Automatic annotation (TrEMBL):
SUPFAM superfamilies: Hypothetical protein TM0160. This is BFN domain-containing protein. GO terms for molecular function: nuclease activity. It comes from the Bacteria. It comes from Edaphobacter modestus.
């Protein structure tokens, strides 16, 4: 879904700039986790993703060249050839335990917001070297979700992730 948006792709006050802290396997579910960390604090946001999306992110993090363009490389190349530029990505919503994201593009002076999965948005952000943001409400809602009675393990995992050193994080290894 693509929508014209009057809002500028500049950093909004309700967005927190994040960086990728790590990419690892969840020891319980054996699913990949992207760990985003607030650049100004120790707040982390784990996002579980599919294996193919995690691989696309890992390839870019490790600057591994592939003989043919992968899907996210193709998307970057298409945007470039259409004179568009990805300005930022935002993990914008958490609804029913599912994260949502928006990719903000500019083309010919127009701003376009495109709905995306966070894993795809992050893979594109890495290829464009553009900032990754998370809406403050998403951070708050993810904390509230993790403090619920059924999710005590999620809160423990968040604390564990916040305290991992670089060796423990695995340097983007899966």
């Amino acid at each position: 879904m693509s929508t014209q948006a009057p809002q500028s792709p500049v950093h909004a006050p309700d967005e927190v700039e994040m960086q990728i802290r790590g990419l690892m396997m969840d020891p319980i579910t054996n699913m990949p986790i992207i760990v985003l960390k607030d650049i100004a604090s120790d707040t982390v946001l784990p996002i579980w993703v599919g294996i193919f999306e995690a691989n696309a992110i890992a390839l870019e993090l490790e600057k591994t060249a592939t003989p043919r363009p992968m899907t996210h490389d193709l998307m970057r190349n298409m945007a470039r050839n259409l004179n568009a530029e990805v300005r930022k990505v935002v993990v914008s919503e958490l609804r029913d335990d599912t994260f949502y994201a928006v990719v903000w593009l500019e083309q010919a002076g127009e701003t376009v917001a495109m709905d995306a999965r966070p894993s795809d948005a992050i893979a594109l952000a890495l290829r464009w070297d553009c900032p990754i943001y998370v809406n403050r409400d998403v951070l708050e809602n993810s904390r509230q979700t993790s403090t619920g009675a059924q999710s005590i393990n999620a809160d423990e995992m968040r604390r564990w992730l916040e305290n991992l050193n670089d060796d423990e994080m695995g340097r983007y290894k899966m």
